[in-house]
Amino acid sequence: MAKGKKVNVYFCQSCGYESSKWMGQCPGCREWNTFVEELVEKKAVGKVKSVPGGNEELKPTKISEIDMQAKERLQTGFRELDRVLGGGIVPGSLVLVGGDPGIGKSTLLLQVCRNLAETKEILYISGEESLQQIKMRAQRIGQFSDHLQLFCDTSLERIEQVIERGKPQIVVIDSIQTMYSEDVGSAPGSVSQVRETTARLLQIAKGTDITVFIVGHVTKEGVVAGPRVLEHMVDTVLYFEGDRHASYRILRGVKNRFGSTNEIGVFEMQEAGLLEVENPSEFMLNGKPQGASGSIVACSMEGTRPILVEIQALVCHSNFGIPRRTAAGTDLNRVNLLMAVLEKRGGLSLSGSDAYVNIAGGIRMHEPAIDLGIVMALASSYKDHAIDEKTICFGEVGLSGEVRAVNMAQQRVSEAKKLGFTSCVLPKVSIPGLNDVKGIKIIGVDNIREAIGWMIG
């Protein structure tokens, strides 16, 4: 084969599009200013070799002949993680775990390795820490079985040899940005290296039924660093979210070929590692004030799980020409929209007031069902009228001020009853679908005027 030569190539950081020159807008994903320059080695193209065995090995398989006896999922020892994965680890899958630095990605995977190493062969590969550093972190978590083996290297070729010799059932790569292949001339962490190493790991997972977890760093925008095609290649994408200064962590599935993409798992960071939170609603409502205006509990659905969160609002007169509006834990544009609906349809004069909305606990919620909670919290603060602390609400608010139905109303009411709430404000159109509502007062509203009237009535 003729020796390759190194040339400068431009890659799109968003989709991986390759170009010989820099362009302002990517022709592939239409994003602006995403091209980066890399030095890669272009090898000479040789004649394509014929496939051994002739045409017999290229015979396709009839769909009726495919064996549907799926292999049993592996339980990780964390029910929260199993829920996000859709019931456990699927053998031969490729799972990407992303998150901010120091959020606990490596700690979570090391704890999963500890649980699985009791019955499975595990290989933990680190390109960021030495063996001694991993052992120091492992000693804080607990005792580990000898079925867990550690290997520190960044060369993909050597990693492939170790996997082939040891034949583990689970492999953890920490992290994908530190790995490099000798077949690619660019530096580790570049677009071409991340794409090549992930493709090779995907071949290992599918060809040998080895489950591979890869850790990915995230950019300042909160997405996994590298080409966007990385998320398309893997089977499951998990994001580990949360404030490093807070004790809780949220594991969110944004892609899952083997389960729901709306599930979340809640963990609490402690000295001995991560501890799963089995009742996140009770955890989020700790410290809720009593008798304070601008506070109400709303219910949001994350996958099949109802989560109760406290929505706080503070409305006060503005000393500036342009009122200040901020939102923590929800979309600011949505808050501005709801305030406009309150002023137009609810009769509240908010144009000269500062408004601050916060979802207590630091969790982020974007489901439309919390609209009614935001509206009632804003109205409660504006009128300085406290809402009964045993009241919960949910419902989507439209531009005409109507309160629209949301899904899974029965599950939301049942969760409120379980946590001791005595009143529930919800869309009137959702009441016929409820059953077993004894012990909780159901208040149906058609629009925000009815909801505000009930609150101050």
Structure, explained:
The protein has about 450 residues and is of the alpha/beta class. About 25% of the residues lie in helices and about 25% in strands. The protein is built from 11 helices and 21 strands. It has helices spanning about 80-85, 105-115, 130-140, 155-165, 190-210, 230-235, 280-285, 330-345, 370-385, 410-420, 450-455, and strands spanning about 5-10, 20, 35-40, 95-100, 120-125, 150, 170-175, 210-215, 235-240, 250-255, 265-270, 275, 295-300, 305-315, 325-330, 355-360, 390-395, 395, 405, 425, 440-445. A 9-stranded mixed β-sheet has the order 6-5-7-8-4-9-10-11-12, sandwiched between helices. It has a 7-stranded mixed β-sheet with strand order 15-16-14-13-17-20-21. A hairpin with a 6-residue loop joins strand 9 (about 235-240) and strand 10 (about 250-255). Helix 9 packs across helix 11. The chain is globular. The chain starts with a strand and ends with a helix. The model is unreliable at about 45-55 (pLDDT under 50).
Structure in a nutshell:
By secondary structure, this protein is α/β, with parallel strands linked by helices.
Cα end-to-end separation: 85 Å
> What gyration radius follows from the Cα positions, in whole Å?
26 Å
Please tell me the overall pLDDT.
87
Strand order within the widest sheet? 6-5-7-8-4-9-10-11-12
Which stretches of 5+ consecutive residues score pLDDT under 50?
A: 45-55
**Count of individual helical segments:** 11
Helix content: 25-40%
